């Protein structure tokens, strides 16, 4: 299993060792690959300094390796793996047994060809075509590695472009960059006043990660580093890996699956009895029922009983809602609607500069927890994809409400889950921006399981488990995410036959017609 750095791979190895039988431990190993310093490679490749590490384990230990990879989001991106594979075939990566010889690069930016600067699919990026195999006669020629870089990224390499792209992404997330910019024009313009409502929020308070789960994992690790080994609170029915992170990578957590006022009453009783916690993690809205917890009450409890508040805004998005003002950390999966193009992954974490934990968290991240493993190619794609983020959210808000109206009018629909029509709408509206909508995620449960199957099969849209795509996408979410724990999910009101719809950018009339045809097919059956 591949990881971007020696540190992430070693952490995975430790996770496995704690869980496998003792007789399997000797078979576990890590191979760290870094640029061969003995080769006279090009200056560009030296500055990029690519690394990759592999965790080796017998098949009996693989389930634990998979757990670590899935929950933490620490794995190597496909673009990093592809690039390093090309270097390995050219004998430019060296296995090293000593982690200290692996130079970890925090910012190794480069510029790709023009196809990386415009909207494109991942298929438009060709695999690296290695140059002629290195031989003892030419192994020290720097033009070999230069040729490899040019074949992979184009001839006009500009290592400053990725640094500007990262800055643009961070500013966009902070709300201080609200228009499209040209990364080729030199330095970025001065940041505008941010739209997050916190004028003290700065670009350096935004941290970028290679995946959304990696942002959540590192937020939890930062809290443990800053505040000590305390249990966490998972409030509301969670995305599956969030709960697993809190359970498996620290002292554990308490779980309140309904995100209701009653849950908050029970939590308050527990707090009054003397229990203390690291932080409360929640989604706003939740997935897949789109329930919104009472963040204002949570903030009051956090201030009184000294715990941090971490809010995942992926589904609501900062184009629709403001959750930073009542949070200590805000996390998000940039893979979803922020990118929209389904060709790159990413995550972010924002520290609230007005939080009482800010200085401790800042020190924990900057000095201990944070490692910049975001592969430069992925940064380029993410920056380009996210330039029209706000406009896309506006369009998706309109489409989602139109689809909800179509579904609500059908006698086949038993329950429809959407922030605008959920019982927790008041909590959403308390955080909704003046021009914000209700997001692009809708869940529906039918009166009959067979009708749900027919509706799903008749839907002339893409089928898959993700969300936030520019095209409309639906899935039998509960069966995919919680198949091994359906009775557990059901006790929190999550129906196994629930269909989740991530609404896209198609013409509104076209989407409504598509849903009406599927409903008619189900009614006729």
TrEMBL record:
It catalyses: O-succinyl-L-homoserine + L-cysteine = L,L-cystathionine + succinate + H(+). Its cofactor is pyridoxal 5'-phosphate. Residues 108-118 have a biased composition (Basic residues). Pathway: Amino-acid biosynthesis; L-methionine biosynthesis via de novo pathway; L-cystathionine from O-succinyl-L-homoserine: step 1/1. Residues 138-147 have a biased composition (Basic and acidic residues). Belongs to the trans-sulfuration enzymes family. MET7 subfamily. PANTHER family: CYSTATHIONINE GAMMA-SYNTHASE-RELATED, PTHR42699. Catalyzes the formation of L-cystathionine from O-succinyl-L-homoserine (OSHS) and L-cysteine, via a gamma-replacement reaction. In the absence of thiol, catalyzes gamma-elimination to form 2-oxobutanoate, succinate and ammonia. This is cystathionine gamma-synthase. The lineage of its organism: Eukaryota, Fungi, Dikarya, Ascomycota, Pezizomycotina. The gene is STR2.
């Amino acid at each position: 299993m591949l990881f971007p750095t020696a540190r992430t791979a070693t952490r995975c190895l430790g996770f496995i060792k704690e869980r496998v039988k003792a007789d399997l431990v000797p078979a576990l190993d890590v191979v760290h690959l870094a640029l061969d310093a003995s080769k006279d490679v090009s200056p560009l490749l030296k500055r990029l300094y690519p690394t990759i590490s592999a965790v080796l384990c017998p098949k009996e230990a693989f389930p634990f390796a998979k757990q670590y990879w899935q929950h933490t989001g620490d794995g190597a991106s496909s673009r990093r793996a592809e690039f390093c594979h090309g270097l390995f075939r050219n004998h430019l990566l060296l296995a090293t047994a000593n982690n200290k010889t692996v130079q970890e690069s925090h910012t190794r930016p480069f510029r790709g060809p023009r196809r990386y600067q415009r909207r494109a699919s991942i298929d438009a990026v060709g695999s690296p075509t290695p140059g002629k195999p290195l031989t003892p006669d030419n192994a020290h020629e720097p033009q070999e590695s230069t040729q490899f870089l040019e074949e992979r990224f184009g001839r006009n390499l500009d290592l400053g472009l990725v640094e500007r792209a990262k800055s643009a992404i961070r500013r966009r997330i902070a709300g201080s960059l609200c228009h499209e910019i040209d990364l080729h024009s030199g330095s970025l313009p001065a940041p505008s006043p941010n739209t997050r409502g916190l004028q003290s929020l700065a670009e350096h308070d935004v941290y970028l990660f290679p995946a959304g789960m990696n942002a959540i994992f590192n937020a939890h690790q930062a809290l443990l580093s800053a505040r000590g080994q305390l249990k966490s609170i998972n409030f509301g029915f969670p995305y599956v890996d969030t709960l697993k992170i809190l359970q498996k990578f620290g002292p554990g957590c308490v779980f309140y699956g309904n995100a209701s006022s009653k849950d908050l009453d029970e939590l308050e009783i527990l707090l009054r009895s003397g229990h203390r916690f690291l932080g409360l993690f929640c989604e706003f809205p939740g997935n897949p029922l789109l329930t919104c917890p009472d963040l204002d009450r949570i903030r009051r409890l956090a201030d009184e009983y000294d715990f941090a508040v971490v809010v995942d805004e992926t589904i609501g998005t900062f184009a629709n809602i403001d959750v930073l003002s009542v949070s200590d950390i805000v996390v998000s999966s940039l893979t979803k609607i922020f990118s929209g193009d389904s060709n790159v992954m990413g995550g972010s974490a924002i520290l609230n500069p007005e939080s009482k934990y800010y200085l401790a968290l800042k020190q924990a991240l900057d000095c201990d927890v944070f490692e910049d493993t975001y592969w430069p190619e992925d940064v380029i794609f993410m920056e380009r994809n996210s330039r029209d983020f706000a406009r896309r959210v506006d369009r998706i808000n309109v489409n989602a409400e139109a689809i909800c109206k179509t579904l609500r009018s059908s006698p086949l629909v038993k329950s429809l889950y959407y922030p605008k029509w959920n019982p927790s709408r008041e909590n959403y509206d308390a955080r909704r921006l003046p021009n914000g909508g209700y997001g692009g995620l809708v869940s529906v449960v039918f009166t009959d399981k067979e009708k749900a199957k027919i509706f799903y099969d008749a839907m002339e849209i893409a089928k898959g488990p993700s969300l936030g795509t520019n095209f409309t996408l639906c899935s039998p979410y509960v069966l995919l995410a919680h198949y091994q724990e359906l009775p557990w999910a059901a006790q929190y009101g999550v129906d196994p036959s629930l269909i989740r719809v991530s609404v896209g950018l198609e013409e509104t009339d076209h989407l409504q017609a598509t849903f009406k045809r599927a409903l008619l097919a189900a009614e006729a059956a």
